[in-house]
Design a protein that fits this description.
Structural class of chain A: mainly beta
Order of helices and strands of chain B: HHHHHEHHEEHEHHHHEEEE
Order of helices and strands of chain A: EEEEHEHEEEEE
Helix content of chain A: 10-25%
Number of strands of chain A: 10
Oligomer: heterodimer
Number of helices of chain B: 12
Shape of chain B: globular
Largest interface: A-B, 48 and 43 residues
Helix content of chain B: 40-55%
Strand order of the largest sheet of chain B: 4-8-7-6-5
Radius of gyration of chain A: 19 Å
Strand content of chain A: 35-45%
Largest sheet of chain A: 5 strands, antiparallel
Number of domains of chain A: 2
Strand order of the largest sheet of chain A: 9-8-6-5-10
Shape of chain A: elongated
Number of strands of chain B: 8
Chain lengths: 151, 290
């Protein structure tokens, strides 16, 4: 059930509510920061990690007071990995002002993302290896043309 | 022009400080003398004397308070360093008990732990969910020299209404904590593989006679040189890093010198700054130097 919602084994989260042996957990995506989801799990399906500081609890309380939980019920399935080769499929000013246009290819240089935008390095097309620009590219703005083959 | 003027300057400062009954006059006098010998003292002299003279004229006792004067000296030194892009190792020579002057700062965003790990990431995530600036929280705990830092000293360090602040850290502390990490995969899994070859990343290394079998040597060499240069402040901010990508952290460029095939080449490499003196290789080749 949780796997269908993108919440997989070893994913970490914070307990925000307890109801008998059920725990409501705020799961954070391990690789896509800013993506989170709420889910009820059984107590015996999780293990204790660490006790949050008072400051962290305050932040969580503040988030809960401002969040519509019904809009955060699943996590994104991350299909992008470090060293994947990707191709830009849009022509947007936020990319073109750095000389990067639709159809150009680049390499993902970070294993994590923020709000499902990925750190992509675009090199000059003359084969020199020199960098044209390091951009933050939204997931919907590129396709993966070649997956990294790293063990 | 340097030494005689600096002596006159120092005597003037000492005279004014004596009038203020400053408790650590002798130390501050010695510090001022050292500063003037190392740096171009005109800018320093002008600023400092204007401040002290103004305070004396208006008999504003607060301004002659020792801690305020020390803070002013730090601020002026940072200005000079920024203007003149001095070799930061000069500052290492100016160390006194309780008067240590450093050009290194630690960026601070309230509430973000310095140590990397689950707690830091969890708090950064939560702060991001609450619309705190991700660029700022990424910088928290990181060390920069004041003449090569993202943004500038307060107020509003990185952007309008920025809540970040800083504290000075000793150059010796940076040297003790500085670490550089370059994964062997950057070479064996990227540069010398299909992804890197398509971008021409292997070109500079093949030219020097390196291949995939040299990946471990290259990674160790990168780590050694990058650590040395970073702890000496010999880096520049990566100019081609876009504002949005700074969400991941600040990238700096460090020059790495490689020798092979009877040739020596200097290449620019990109490193991500992490807290407490750690830098991690992001891209091994940005281009040649020169």
């Amino acid at each position: 059930m949780l796997a269908q919602r993108g919440i997989h084994k070893n994913y970490r989260g914070e307990v925000v509510e307890v109801n008998g042996d059920k725990l409501k957990i705020l799961f954070d995506h391990p690789r896509i920061h800013g993506n989170y989801a709420f889910a009820w799990v059984n107590e015996n399906e999780v293990k204790f990690d660490y006790r949050a500081s008072e400051y962290a609890k305050q932040l969580t309380d503040e988030l809960l007071s401002k969040t519509d939980e019904t809009k955060h019920t699943s996590l994104i399935e991350a299909d992008v990995h470090e060293y994947d080769w990707v191709q830009l499929i849009v022509e947007k000013e936020e990319y073109t002002k750095y000389g990067v246009h639709k159809g150009m290819e680049g390499c993902v240089l970070m294993s994590d993302s923020y709000d499902n935008t990925w750190y992509v390095e675009f090199s000059k097309e003359d084969g020199s290896g020199e960098v044209l620009a390091d951009l933050c590219v939204a997931r919907e703005d590129f396709i993966i043309t070649e997956h990294a083959n790293i063990q | 022009m340097g030494t005689p003027f600096s002596l006159r300057l120092t005597l003037s400062i000492a005279s004014l400080l004596r009038k203020s009954c400053c408790p650590s006059t002798r130390n501050l006098k010695r510090t001022s003398f050292n500063i003037c010998n190392v740096l171009d003292c005109y800018y320093f002299a002008e600023k400092f004397l204007i401040m002290l003279k103004w305070a004396e004229d208006y008999q504003i006792e607060n301004l002659l308070n020792y801690s305020v004067i020390k803070s002013c000296i730090f601020e002026i030194l940072c200005d000079i360093a920024k203007l003149r892009r001095l070799n930061m190792s000069n500052f290492d020579a100016i160390v006194e008990n309780n008067n240590e002057i450093s050009a290194w700062i630690k960026w601070i965003h309230y509430g973000v732990p310095d140590e990397e790990g689950k707690e830091r990431e969890d708090i950064r995530n939560r702060l991001a969910d609450l619309f705190h600036c991700k660029k700022c929280t990424a910088l928290s705990g990181c060390y920069f020299v004041t003449n090569e830092m993202p943004g500038h000293l307060p107020p509003e360090m990185l952007h309008p209404r920025c809540d970040c602040t800083y504290e000075f850290v000793a150059a010796s502390q940076v040297k003790e904590q500085a670490r550089a990490i370059c994964s062997v995969n950057k070479f064996s899994g990227f540069v010398f593989q299909q992804s890197g070859i398509r971008a021409g990343k292997d070109t500079p290394y093949l030219d020097l006679g390196f291949d995939i079998n040299d990946s471990e040597y290259l990674s160790k060499e990168y780590e050694r040189q990058a650590k040395e240069r970073y702890e000496q402040g010999q880096y520049v901010l990566h100019k081609k890093q876009t504002e949005k990508s700074k969400t991941f952290g600040q990238t700096i460029n460090i020059v790495i010198e490689l020798t092979g095939n009877g040739k020596t080449r200097k290449v620019r490499s990109g490193w991500m700054v992490h807290p407490l003196g750690l830098i991690v290789l992001a891209t091994p080749y940005l281009g040649y130097v020169g």
